[in-house]
Design brief:
The chain has 417 residues and is α/β, with parallel strands linked by helices. It is 45% helix and 16% strand. It has two domains: 173 residues, Rossmann fold (3-Layer(aba) Sandwich), CATH 3.40.50.10860; 154 residues, Rossmann fold. It has 14 helices and twelve strands. It has a seven-stranded mixed beta sheet with strand order 9-8-7-6-10-11-12, with helices on both faces. The longest helix is centred in the C-terminal third of the chain and has 26 residues. The N and C termini lie far apart (48 Å). Bound molecules: nicotinamide-adenine-dinucleotide. The site of nicotinamide-adenine-dinucleotide has 24 residues, from α7 and β7.
């Protein structure tokens, strides 16, 4: 079996396509492909049983030409430097695409939060935060939640950073609880954005979203609420999944009830009453109108692309589709709303949170949601306009806009010395 493309290979290949379309020179291509700063740190952890283990932590700032770096922190056993580099690069294009003044970053710790106690998670978070402290800060690099981390993780990071500084610095991270400088609307922002992106794509194709069938891979922070918002708006969510597998009901699921089931102690959706158990692979290949991959990268690849039956793929996750799968899906006429557009609602409201923290003046939830809608619909229109003009896919158009804006910033700033 040929090796599947890694996230970094996918990101590099997408960049090369955008560079070619934009006619950028080799030097600029190399600059855009190279992370500005990569940090690897040792994160020693005292386990609850008294033993010690040393975990690997990372923070990569891919590009700083348009502003401070911005991007999530992932706690996952497979996290490594190459994955973090790919995710940081996607953040750069995403921030540029939606027009917010940040460069891209990403970070993570190679660990399995499902096997750790709350106290162990707190110790890992605080030690990791203190190790990367020299390169983060509200004007330097602002982390946020990603896979395996949440608003509590951000509260611990903010507290650790503030304790070192000697005063409270709410703007050092986003995705915090509202009680410590978080923004109303941040919790559901990525998922709300996925819904806006889905509706824009359906509207453009003349398809009514009401009654449209949906499958969501990854019932976490992004996928869980995306399923709920789509359901509440009239779509019919037939299947969702998590790390353990998926559940299916041909008449439709109730995502809010499933979320409640998880909140009250279940560690998986599998086994939920009134559903059939399916595998993650089966979920991806279901005959639905809309597929929302919202777990990890590389799940739609060369080997399964031909079996995908959804008409619309809206990428809640970062990098779920490899470039070779993209080519197959495009030839089948599947509309793929790319990650840097579809899941940009999270970083958009992170930006709103940072602005509110810096001003110490907070907005209403309606104001946050309204601004998010305007920003995402405008980004979708720009991407779809360019895709039509240049006869390229939505992904290539989105990358061209993001990469083009970063290239412009480099040209305008010039090279020092
Ligand atoms: P999360 O940890 O809250 O949820 C991840 C979900 O994926 C969980 O349901 C988990 O069980 C499931 N999962 C893990 N491994 C799996 C596997 N091998 N197969 C199937 N499911 C699996 O993470 P999240 O924050 O929802 O992030 C999901 C994706 O969205 C990631 O690609 C992330 O980078 C991207 N994203 C997140 C945000 C955000 O604001 N949290 C913003 C933009 C993009």
């Amino acid at each position: 079996m040929p090796a599947r493309m890694s996230a970094l290979d996918s990101a590099m290949s997408q960049l090369a396509t955008a560079v070619e379309q934009l006619g950028l020179d080799d030097g600029l291509h190399e600059l855009l492909a190279t992370p500005r700063r990569s940090m690897q740190v040792a994160v020693p952890l005292r386990r609850d049983d008294g033993t010690m283990t040393v975990l690997a932590g990372y923070r990569v700032q891919h590009n700083l030409s348009r502003g401070p770096a911005k991007g999530g922190i992932r706690f996952h056993p497979h996290t490594d430097l190459d994955e973090v580099r790919a995710l940081a690069m996607w953040m750069t294009w995403k921030c540029a695409l939606i027009g917010i003044p940040y460069g891209g970053a990403k970070g993570g710790v190679a660990c399995d939060p499902r096997l750790m106690s709350r106290n162990e998670l707190e110790r890992v978070t605080r030690r990791y935060a203190s190790e990367i402290m020299p390169i983060i800060g509200p004007e330097k690099d602002i982390p946020a939640p990603d896979v395996g981390t949440d608003e509590q993780t951000m509260a611990w990071m903010m507290d650790t950073y503030s304790a070192h500084k000697g005063y409270t610095v709410t703007g050092v991270v986003t995705g915090k609880p509202v009680s410590v400088g978080g923004s109303l609307g941040r919790g559901g922002a990525t998922s709300r954005g996925v819904m806006f992106a889905t509706f824009s794509a359906l509207r453009e194709a003349g398809v009514d979203h009401r009654g449209a069938t949906v499958a969501v891979q990854g019932f976490g922070k992004v996928g869980g609420l995306a399923a709920q918002y789509l359901h509440d708006a009239g779509c019919n969510v037939l299947a969702v999944s998590d790390w353990k597998g998926g559940v299916y009901n041909g008449k439709g699921l109730n995502p809010a009830a499933l979320l409640k089931h998880l909140k009250t102690g279940a560690d998986t959706v599998v086994g939920y009453p009134g559903t059939d158990t399916i595998t993650n692979e089966e979920l991806l290949e279901l005959d639905v109108d809309i597929l929302v991959p919202a777990a990890l990268e590389g799940v739609l690849h060369e080997e399964n692309a031909d079996r995908i039956r959804a008409r619309f793929i809206v990428e809640g996750a970062n990098g779920p589709t490899t470039p070779d799968a993209d080519a197959v899906l495009e030839s089948k006429g599947v509309v793929v709303v790319p990650d840097i557009l579809a899941n940009s609602g999270g970083v958009a409201v992170s930006y709103f949170e940072w602005v509110q923290d810096l001003q110490a003046y907070f907005w209403s939830e309606d104001e946050v949601n309204d601004r998010l809608k305007v920003l995402m619909e405008s980004a979708y229109d720009q991407v779809s306009g360019l895709a039509g003009e240049r006869s390229v896919s939505l992904r290539t158009a989105a990358q061209m806009i993001g990469v083009g804006r970063v290239a412009d910033a480099h040209r305008t700033r010039g090279l020092y010395p």
